[in-house]
Design goal:
Blueprint lengths: L1 E10 L3 H18 L2 E7 L4 H7 L5 H9 L2 E6 L14 H12 L4 E7 L12 H4 L4 E7 L11 E2 L4 E2 L6 H16 L4 E6 L5 H14 L6 E6 H10 L6 E4 L1 H14 L9 E3 L5 E3 L18 H13 L4 H16 L2 E2 L9 E2 L2 H11 L2
Helix pairs in contact: 1-10, 1-12, 6-7, 8-9, 10-11, 11-12
Bound molecules: nicotinamide-adenine-dinucleotide (NAD), 3-isopropylmalic acid (IPM) and manganese (II) ion.
Function: Catalyzes the oxidation of 3-carboxy-2-hydroxy-4-methylpentanoate (3-isopropylmalate) to 3-carboxy-4-methyl-2-oxopentanoate. The product decarboxylates to 4-methyl-2 oxopentanoate.
Pathway: Amino-acid biosynthesis; L-leucine biosynthesis; L-leucine from 3-methyl-2-oxobutanoate: step 3/4
InterPro entries: IsoCit/isopropylmalate_DH_CS (IPR019818), IsoPropMal-DH-like_dom (IPR024084), Isopropylmalate_DH (IPR004429)
Amino acid sequence: TKTKKIAILPGDGIGPEVMAEAEKILDVVAPRYGLSLEKRRANVGGAGIDAEGKALPDSTVETCRWADAILFGSVGGPKWENLPPDEQPERGALLPLRKLFGLYANLRPAIIFPQLKDASPLKPEVIGDRFDVLVVRELTGGIYFGQPKGRDAERGFDTLVYTKPEIERIAHVAFKAARLRDKKVTSIDKANVLASMVLWREVVTGVAKDYPDVELNHMYVDNAAMQLVKNPRQFDVLLCGNMFGDILSDEASMITGSLGMLPSASLAEGSFGLYEPSGGSAPDIAGQGIANPIAQILSAGMMLKYSFGLSEAYDAIYQAIESVLAQGLRTGDIMTPGCTRVNTKEMGDAIVRALG
Ligand code: NAD
Ligand code: IPM
Ligand code: MN
């Protein structure tokens, strides 16, 4: 048995609700693969502000430093929206965590379970046999972090800047991922307007020379947003900067039925990572126990795969989810006629049962 340390940061809104289900799944799956998990929980986001006066308390950073990986819920909500921007959950905790731990590579696999074809807003013939896209999103640069940024009463500004090394390292992640898939990378940019994106296109083209077995295409982001709903099957790996990846991953998630289905892994060099659903704290449904826990559960699965090297554990979780969907169980966001509506806890319990 090997022991790994994980920091559990449930956060706000539906975060704690879906985290409880992911923990149940981990408790069942980890021991089967000879893994003993030592867990410590910490406050983050609004929960950090309320309990310790700060979105990212020092004690939380310490817990994350102690850990081999972070399992993260989601942060933010109306309660904290009137604080100074830098103290709010998103800018005060999530972005600093990503930066602090060098989590530059965000993997967002949007894969439709065949059972959920009816839950997708796209026609079945548009989806075809399979929709399986990996969004590779640069996570510690671009307009989110570029300096200067600021505002006064009359003017607000942000800076979109990318350096060659930043583009190179995320491009390598995308090409390596493509090698294990359909060997196609579509690099998303706005090189017709933005200088940073002219560099992006140039550098990605250069990196592609190391991967002659992978096909590279370039696409403007506006066209990509359109192509995703017109012909989603043309894509394999989407390589994006920080903001374009944020937007296109939400769009891709909906093709699979719901944002509540999309997990993510935010990886540093080495095996450290932060794992979180791609969606947020969902204030519109928080507190009702009806959120879809699958994105959080798959994020926990990605932690087992990417930080702890247990891809079979990820596969087992994936298959358990598939079998629960085949039984017709659905949370509200993926509900379709003829299926049985379940709440967050019932979905988690069903996945635990399906694990056997
Ligand atoms: P959101 O992702 O929270 O919600 C968008 C829509 O998707 C809502 O209708 C919500 O109910 C639905 N949804 C999301 N996850 C779901 C799930 N698991 N099950 C069922 N439905 C789900 O985005 P928003 O409303 O724009 O933002 C709400 C708050 O969350 C904001 O404070 C935002 O900054 C924050 N946020 C945090 C993260 C994060 O912590 N990683 C990510 C995105 C947004
Ligand atoms: C995400 C979220 C975050 C982002 C916000 C909450 C800062 O939307 O993880 O997709 O924009 O990166
Ligand atoms: Mn987002």
